[in-house]
């Protein structure tokens, strides 16, 4: 990864000390205007809480509760004042409650029991969509974690991600090399992406669809890890363009994984090999990139998912530099290393 290695070395100079000797990390590096600040990271409940538990029960009993830690996280989503993380080692969805600062497992039982949850998303109503690679199904829960329904029969597909719009559910299927589009209300299949006229065109087709995202226009972004790019389709499944391509330079991908889109239709894409998150404009042009700060962990560690979160900025505002206004959060999941959940702030200088 020669091209990105050079760029990563430049990031070492992005730290700006304040008068209180606290160090803040910004991307891109000076002299460019900073747009991202690394805010914090955690890999366990204790780290998330910032130290020992100070709850009333701990005060009364003098005992610290068990420290729930992440094993090997992959997918994630934000909603309902929570961060949901699929952990492939623990075979569970861990729920990071931003209000109570506790981490619990999603209580999925009976028909909703999870086997190997890989990816998760939250719709506008707070419902959860979990792509379970052990069950090879998508399990739907309501905002309170109650089981709602299951998509897919045994052997029918190999779902890797699922996202929902106001009226549709999209499921990335590795087995059939496409994305299934379901009616959200009836959960009946509407059509598949790519459309038949695009399926035979190698430039428009999908090979290994792994992660999904929707933009403000209802367009679908599909990360195709095996084809080294992100495919963009309109809401009717017509191919629009590709973003990226195979390579080791910025603007290219070696192992593209999670994707997300913000309210200005900027695309965020993580690469598990180059280990950075790249940001593109709504025309697919590279804007910038960012990675994990610090000399020992300059790059992210097998990043697998990126999440854009506008609703929970207040929970992390205290980590921002005094002269930096955070507009929204960007959450990056790392499968290994000391920083499993990393929180970045997108914003601008005040």
Describe, in plain words, how this protein is organized in 3D.
By secondary structure, the chain is mainly beta. The chain has a single domain (2-349), classed as Neuraminidase, CATH 2.120.10. It contains 4 helices and 26 strands. The chain has helices spanning 2-10, 45-49, 56-61, 196-199, and strands spanning 15-17, 23-27, 36-42, 73-79, 82-87, 92-97, 102-105, 117-122, 128-132, 137-141, 147-151, 159-164, 168-173, 178-183, 189-193, 209-214, 220-224, 229-233, 239-243, 256-261, 267-271, 277-280, 286-290, 303-309, 324-334, 341-349. The strands form 6 sheets. A 6-stranded antiparallel beta sheet has the order 1-2-3-26-25-24. It has a 4-stranded antiparallel beta sheet with strand order 4-5-6-7. Strands 8-9-10-11 form a 4-stranded antiparallel beta sheet, with no helix packed on it. Strand 4 (73-79) and strand 5 (82-87) form a beta hairpin. It starts with a helix and ends with a strand. Mean pLDDT is 89; it is low at 1-20.
């Amino acid at each position: 990864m020669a091209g990105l290695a050079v760029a990563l070395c430049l990031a070492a100079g992005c730290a700006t000390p304040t008068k209180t000797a606290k160090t803040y990390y910004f991307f891109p590096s000076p002299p460019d205007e900073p747009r991202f600040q690394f805010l914090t990271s955690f890999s366990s409940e204790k780290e998330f809480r910032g130290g020992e538990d100070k709850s009333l029960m701990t005060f009364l009993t003098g005992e610290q509760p068990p420290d729930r830690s992440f094993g090997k996280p992959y997918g994630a989503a934000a909603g309902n004042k929570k961060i949901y993380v699929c952990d492939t080692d623990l075979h569970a969805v861990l729920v990071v409650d931003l209000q109570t600062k506790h981490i619990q497992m999603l209580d999925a039982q009976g028909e909703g029991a999870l086997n190997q949850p890989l990816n998760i998303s939250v719709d506008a109503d707070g419902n959860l969509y979990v792509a379970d690679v052990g069950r090879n199904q998508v399990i739907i829960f309501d905002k309170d974690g109650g089981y709602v329904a299951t998509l897919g029969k045994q052997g029918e597909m190999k779902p890797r991600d699922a996202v929902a719009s106001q009226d549709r559910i999209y499921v990335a299927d590795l087995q059939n090399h496409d994305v299934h589009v379901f009616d959200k209300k009836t959960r009946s299949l509407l059509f598949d992406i790519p459309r038949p006229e695009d399926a035979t065109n190698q430039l428009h087709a999908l090979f290994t669809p792994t992660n999904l995202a929707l933009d403000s226009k209802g367009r679908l972004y599909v990360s195709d890890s095996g084809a080294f790019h992100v495919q963009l389709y309109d809401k009717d499944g017509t191919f629009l363009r590709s973003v990226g391509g195979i390579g080791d330079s910025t603007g290219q991908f070696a192992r593209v994984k999670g994707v997300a889109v913000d309210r200005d239709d900027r695309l965020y894409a993580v690469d598990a090999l180059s280990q950075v998150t790249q940001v593109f404009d709504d025309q697919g042009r590279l804007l910038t990139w960012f990675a994990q700060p610090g000399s020992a962990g300059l790059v992210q560690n097998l990043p697998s998912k990126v999440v854009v979160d506008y609703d929970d900025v207040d929970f992390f505002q205290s980590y921002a530099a005094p002269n930096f206004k955070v507009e929204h959060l960007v959450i990056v999941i790392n499968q290994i290393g000391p920083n499993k959940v990393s929180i970045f702030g997108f914003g601008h200088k005040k």
